[in-house]
């Protein structure tokens, strides 16, 4: 594997070679995967055994139509089928959304999932990229993003919640305010592909609101939360008109027999699925604690099933990636090819503690081994550090990696600047082989939660949430047309969105695995909610609804008219 690792990464159009390619170059066994963000606890071993026992049948015969498979998924998740379109992975749906619904331009915060930047550019659209600031912990200021969209005249807006690769989370009410403020756009897409792993709110999805609005699509992934990327299935939820427009363009057999088999199995495994989400959230805390102990490593708060990590000054991500793979058989996602990121950042998927210990040991060896082997050169002596930007290189060389002092304080003193957000966790003291970088005091950020502070687990400085709710006062106004109405928007659109014919929303809300999730203690007895400052426990599990323990996805129950 060692001799071919560079060619494997250069020879693929994706960010990383497939696991099949890596396995072929190895000894028949793939590496420990910290790259592909899927659920390591689902499906269960018993489910895999059932799939293996039916393998001949699955690969021999045609699947049912996509309508049949979609109907079963909607029955499980309590969604109206006319509001849902299932795709061969969320990427197929992104492709059709671009072809059918994006006319001129699309706005997206970066860094983010690459298809949201690449797909529109491939079809000649203008992509307006709103940069998330590293100095702000990559937190998305929705009011500033809305102002950016207005200034650019963008027609379509996209939000990923949680965002990939940093895991930044937006409260549901803030997303609704954003949709209200930009109700005159052609389209707003809320990509909730990783929302099942979030625990900052018990009801974080905006699916209910999307169905009742004329210009909102919510995108959901199944491969990530079900741990089955290879099957390629995902779905979108929107009002019947939008969903039907996308659904009408999809091939009749765009979903394969594996997707059908899994969807029809799920009704018997709701409890196991919810338990798997709890274990991922627990492991996310433990993994952040272990990584934060490495000198010079910065761990950003995440609500996804991954952690965004900044390497020590001078470390080159491609070198770290290649050495972890060749020397330790560990695959990580180096983020140098993501717009808005650099090779100094890694995205590390949450995995069980045994695998995390192996990762930490590998990083220690690669980053802090002997000076002959280390991937972190000494700074200020002309060694091989290069960020790709001459100005940054000169700054790092002249300040020994510490940067210009006082810039953050000056920026915060400028008029009109937003309040500082909580900063990511940085490791404490560097080892002797690394130069000491002076630490600047961090401004205190207002917490969206009560002031009561939970006890911390031993040895772990808990990441602060990077998702404080924005103030609602600064939303930019929509362009005005005749009569004071928003430009290019019919008067009816200013009213509350009309309810789709035949659909009656019920009051019940909840996401699968959220409202029904029982609190599980992490190391030291703390739950994820306590570490993030929540003082209220998660709601108790609901009584069985007769659908295998699955709650209502998107917080909806609908009665369909005759």
Automatic annotation (TrEMBL):
Q: Which domain of life is it from?
A: Bacteria
Q: Which cofactor does it need?
A: pyridoxal 5'-phosphate
| Molecular functions (GO terms) | pyridoxal phosphate binding; transaminase activity
Q: Which CDD domains match?
A: AAT_like
Task: List the residue ranges forming a coiled coil, or say none.
Answer: none
> Any idea where the Aminotransferase class I/classII large domain is?
61-361
Q: What InterPro entries does the record tag this protein with?
A: Aminotransferase_I/II_large, PyrdxlP-dep_Trfase, PyrdxlP-dep_Trfase_major, PyrdxlP-dep_Trfase_small
Q: Which UniProt keywords apply?
A: Aminotransferase, Pyridoxal phosphate, Transferase
Region feature (Disordered): 414-562
Cite the record's Pro residues compositional bias ranges.
432-441
Segments of skewed composition (Low complexity): 442-499, 510-521
PANTHER family linked to this entry: HISTIDINOL-PHOSPHATE AMINOTRANSFERASE-RELATED, THREONINE-PHOSPHATE DECARBOXYLASE
What's the name of the protein?
Answer: Aminotransferase
* Species name: Streptomyces populi
